[in-house]
Amino acid sequence: MTRVNPGGTIGILGGGQLGRMLALAAANLGYRCHIYCPEENSPAFQVADQTTVASYTNEEALTDFARAVDVATYEFENVPAQTADIVSKNTLLRPGARALMVSQDRLVEKEFLADSGVKTAPYQAFHSAAELKEAFKSIGRPSVAKTRRFGYDGKGQQLVKSSKDLDKVLSVTNSTPAILEGFVNFDREISVIVARSASGDVAAYPVSENVHTNHILDITTVPAKVSDMVEAKAKVIAAKVANALEYVGVMTVEMFVSDAKGQIIVNEIAPRVHNSGHWTMDGATTSQFEQHIRAICDLPLGATNARGIIRMKNLLGDDILDNEQYLADPKASFHHYGKSDPRPGRKMGHVTWVDADD
């Protein structure tokens, strides 16, 4: 039996803002949520029915958690493999462990995408200074060095413009396994939020256009300024990736677009709800968070149409203190993540504007 009916309990690994918004969406559909997180006072705890504070390596706590829920999911992709294994032995885990394995390692991810017939930037793995020099000869310049694991928001990355930059790379990657990618000359960055249910149904949202500042997502707009051909092609790519993984839930495929050639290069995949999909909370018929709950519980997937022309802005650090201006704006929808410490660069909330296009 693949369906989990309303009244059941959903377990969420991770207690950040994504877990919080998943729990709120689950409650609207009639589910209870149990949050598992090592950190006390996590944002998701404020809206959950049950909570467990324990490490991701605590086998006893993980087993008890898994046996107390009808289906488990996660809000971040760096869930340890051991954690996923323990949970999946004691309850349904959606998405499955394969999605984690692929997305946690940039080399494995690139190889998976290539095997799936999806175009990526040229890449080569390296672990030593000698291997890095060989990779640089092969990939050329400019290129970008990235750690294979645990990199996000620009962490663990180094732009390589010339051989002089190679000395910086090993310190940035901390001498851990890494890859060198060819730099992609793109016109815009886009992403596709796509859902696949346990029954194999697939639904993609309109393409989002993303602008980053200091490697962190700043603004997302919908519709993206791309041709109908690129829009359709991007959705096909996202669906292909979801099906190849036999994925269950909402995932995100981030891409680069060259308008002149209509070329799409896949940058990376995220096996979870995503920052660039926050616009769906106010700007789509079904939010990405509700869609994820529908998918993992094997309910019918919801409509993905946009309600108008949409702009979403991340609120980082002290940005959250300007909440009064957003609350006073009749076209703005303000979301606070319940975090008390507005550190620089920390994601504290977001605001969405929807201007009806009819």
What can you tell me about this protein's structure?
With 358 residues, this protein is α+β, with helices and mostly antiparallel strands. The protein has helices spanning 17-28, 59-67, 81-88, 97-103, 106-115, 129-139, 166-172, 228-244, 280-283, 288-296, 323-327, and strands at 9-13, 32-37, 50-53, 71-74, 92-93, 123-126, 143-147, 157-160, 178-182, 188-196, 202-204, 208-213, 216-222, 249-258, 263-270, 309-316, 332-336, 347-355. Strands 10, 11, 12, 13, 14, 15, 16, 17 and 18 form a 9-stranded antiparallel beta sheet that branches. Strands 3-2-1-4-5 form a 5-stranded parallel beta sheet, with helices on both faces. Strand 14 and strand 15 (263-270) form a beta hairpin. The relative contact order is 0.13.
Beta strands, count: 18
* CATH structural architecture of the largest domain: 2-Layer Sandwich
Q: How does the helix and strand content classify structurally?
A: alpha+beta
Helix and strand run? EHEEHEHEHHEHEEHEEEEEHEEHHEHEE
Using the CA coordinates, give the radius of gyration: 20 Å
**CATH homologous superfamily heading of the largest domain:** ATP-grasp fold, B domain
CATH C-level name of the largest domain: Alpha Beta
How far do the termini sit from each other? Answer: 43 Å
Q: Show unreliable segments.
A: none
Proportion of β residues?
A: 25-35%
Fraction of helical residues = 25-40%
Tally of alpha and pi helices: 11
Overall structural domain count: 3
| CATH fold-level topology of the largest domain | D-amino Acid Aminotransferase, Chain A, domain 1
Major beta-sheet overview = 9 strands, antiparallel
**Mean pLDDT value:** 93
| Mass-distribution shape | globular
